[in-house]
Amino acid sequence: xxxxxxxxxxxxxxxxxxxxxxxxxxxxxxxxxxxxxxxxxxxxxxxxxxxxxxxxxxxxxxxxxxxxxxx
Length: 71
Description:
Layout: H1 6-15, H2 19-24, H3 31-70
């Protein structure tokens, strides 16, 4: 996490273009697009965690089965 002091924030805000100039600039990505990308990233991360968990479970089951056979 990056922390900024109040002076740095004030300096950054002062460097931003005026609203009239900002409106003439190309539009930033709309919120729904950002939400969709966020949902996609979240789903992708969840899929990776699920796959990793299933892999660990299958490995531990295989170890238990091998020990039961050897035991």
